[in-house]
Specification:
Layout (H helix, E strand, L loop, with lengths): L22 H10 L3 H27 L13 H4 L7 H13 L7 H19 L6 H21 L16 H26 L4 H15 L3 H11 L12 H27 L2 H9 L4 H16 L1 H14 L11 H9 L9 H31 L6
Helix pairs in contact: 4-14, 5-6, 7-8, 7-10, 8-10, 9-10, 10-12, 10-13, 11-12, 13-15, 14-15
Length: 378
């Protein structure tokens, strides 16, 4: 009797995973109901969301009034049903919310500024877009100057428009843009100065940072608008909006410096020693070795500061500068649109705008973190 040995020449195909461990049901079971605590948290969260979302949807869409020309069209006595958001009020005041009291025949200048800004900004946000250096110089160096002359006028045949006529989303974006562009380099310089080995420079930066961090932004705005002119020569006449921008930049720069300093302290000492071993001077070491790593680490903190600055622009109302929220409050005083839902409609509209812009900023920041491999859990 002979024995034969059989050797299989091909590997057996792997078996499919159990049906209970793949697909949407498995994901829901694992993520939302993986344990008793997770299940309870899921149920409670679902109930809270349902309690908040359904009334919001009813107010903004289902019971909303979409057509009308005055307050009468948004009254329950007129429509014979519960009334939600009064969107005709937003349509009637939309130009005021976007541009304030900017002359209607010159609004094209604001729109052109928005378009040019987006055309220059979008390529900067796309990693593979070419001409990054030229694009950055145009956006951060040329665009602010061009936008200033385009919006203010008085040059090149453009009528002069005083900044007190600006308002709405225009003022919100101007303050936010100027605050971000000015606070980042100021924050970097303050962070480096606070870590300097020169005692005088270090203590100057410490006092500067602690002073601005210890004063509320409302106080800064009030001082910059009403008190600063008393300390300047009579020949120095700063525009009220310019004074606010200076105050915002100094205030935001102090907070930004601490965010950046946290990133600098997170860099291992070996990186500094390696840069010095390569013969790099202080500024080259910071520019090419240390700061790129530090700024990558503090992306979440910087974005958080940007979003906070964007929302804090509403405080300029206290110094008689009407941003988006200020224009809303001014529009509420119009008796032609005085209804029980006018105020809620206005704040809902503003809330949507603030949420969309903040959400877009945060999502792009997450994309940058992933691309730079900062180690953030998603």
């Amino acid at each position: 009797m002979t024995s034969a040995t059989f050797v299989r020449q091909q590997l057996i195909a792997p078996s499919n995973p159990p049906a209970s461990s793949v697909g949407t049901p498995a994901w829901l079971r694992q993520k939302l109901f993986g344990s008793a605590l997770n299940a309870a948290a899921t149920v409670i969260s679902a109930l809270i969301l349902a309690a908040l979302i359904w009334p919001t949807v009813r107010f903004m869409f289902i019971d909303a009034v979409w057509d009308g020309s005055s307050r009468v069209d948004c009254l329950e006595e007129t429509v014979k049903r519960p009334v939600g958001a009064c969107w005709p009020f937003i349509a009637a005041k939309f130009a005021q919310f976007m541009y304030g009291f900017y002359p209607a025949d010159q609004v094209w200048r604001v729109n052109l500024t928005y378009v040019v800004g987006l055309v220059l900004l979008v390529p900067l946000l796309i990693p593979r877009a070419p001409w990054k250096t030229l694009n950055a110089v145009l956006f951060f160096g040329v665009f602010p100057v061009a936008a200033f002359y385009l919006l203010v006028g008085g040059r090149f045949g453009l009528p002069h428009v005083e900044t007190r006529q600006w308002g709405g989303l225009l003022v919100t974006l101007v303050i936010t843009f100027a605050g971000i562009i000015g606070s980042v380099p100021l924050g970097i310089l303050l962070a480096l100065g606070r870590r300097s080995s020169l005692p005088l420079l270090r203590w100057f930066c410490v006092v500067f940072i602690e002073f601005w961090r210890g004063v509320p932004l409302i106080t800064v705005l009030f001082f910059a608008t009403y008190m600063l002119p008393f300390f300047l020569p009579e020949s120095w006449k700063l525009d009220p909006l310019a004074r606010v921008l200076i105050g915002v930049i100094l205030f935001a720069g102090a907070y930004m410096s601490e965010v950046i300093r946290g990133g600098l302290q997170a860099i291992p000492r070996g990186q500094f020693e390696a840069a010095r071993a390569l013969g790099l001077g202080y500024w080259k070491m910071m520019a090419f070795v240390v700061l790129p790593q530090a700024l990558k680490i503090v992306i979440p903190g910087m974005v958080n500061s940007f979003i906070a600055l964007f929302k804090d622009t509403t405080l300029v109302l206290i110094v008689a500068i009407f941003d988006l929220l200020g224009q809303l409050r001014a529009a509420f005083a119009d008796p032609n649109w005085a209804t029980p839902v006018t105020v809620l409609t206005g704040f809902a509209f503003a809330g949507v705008i603030y949420f969309i812009i903040s959400f877009v900023i945060s999502r792009y920041a997450l994309y940058v973190e992933r691309r730079l491999s900062t180690g953030v859990a998603h």
